[in-house]
């Protein structure tokens, strides 16, 4: 039987003690999961959280990348604070990758992110995901393993689609889509638009990433 494609990148921002069944479902879907974003407190928090440490260990044991979440405020957050977050994710949760959020897309901010990438590599991180939410300057492909070139609603995705990626093919593209109706399949339109990883959730409003991907709910992760 053909091995499942690891095409799900899952940002799931709920506490394991509050939503244990949902975390169990994510781990059960491990053969299809490219990576899971770990976000205890809009970052690693101020102290280790045992519940997140346990779920991170379970993800690693299931051969799933653990991506530590850090906000960059479009290049305005002090780099030292981001570097502190990446150290905490590594030390407290054994993260082997980083998910940098609110990433600037312009060429002028590239130096800031290049410094963060250098710090991440120095700390032993093997995977760097940059969430621009739109197509960035092609220079970012030099430092990232995955570029999130779309984050937004299903209505926008189906009406306008993501901006065209004008860089090379040496980086994975990812589309994160929320407000996705039941029965809708993101996998095929994402592939048609060049994205090899994706996530589609039903959640809407200010906290869409507190819902499970449709791919898990519909059993296609089996």
Number of E-state strands: 8
Oligomer: single chain
Rg, alpha carbons? 16 Å
* Cα-to-Cα separation, first versus last residue: 13 Å
Strand content: 15-25%
Succession of helices and strands: EHEHEHEHEEHEHEH
Could you say which structural class the secondary elements and strand pairing correspond to? alpha/beta
Could you list the spans in which at least 5 consecutive residues all have pLDDT below 50? Answer: 218-222
**What is the strand arrangement across the widest sheet?**
1-2-3-4-5-6-7-8
Please outline the major beta sheet: 8 strands, parallel
Tell me the helix content: 25-40%
Arithmetic mean of pLDDT: 94
Any descriptors?
8 strands, single chain, globular, 21% strand, eight-stranded parallel beta sheet, disordered C terminus, 7 helices, alpha/beta, Spherulation-specific family 4 protein, 222 residues
What is the secondary structure topology, with strand pairs?
Elements: E1 8-11, H1 20-28, E2 33-38, H2 50-61, E3 65-71, H3 79-93, E4 97-101, H4 110-122, E5 127-131, E6 146-153, H5 154-159, E7 172-178, H6 187-192, E8 197-200, H7 214-217
Helix pairs in contact: 3-4
What would you note in describing this structure?
With 222 residues, the chain is an alpha/beta fold. 29% of the residues lie in helices and 21% in strands. It has 7 helices and 8 strands. Strands 1-2-3-4-5-6-7-8 form an 8-stranded parallel beta sheet. Helix 3 links the parallel strand 3 (65-71) and strand 4. Helix 3 (79-93) runs parallel beside helix 4. The chain is globular, with a radius of gyration of 16 Å. The model is unreliable at 218-222 (pLDDT under 50).
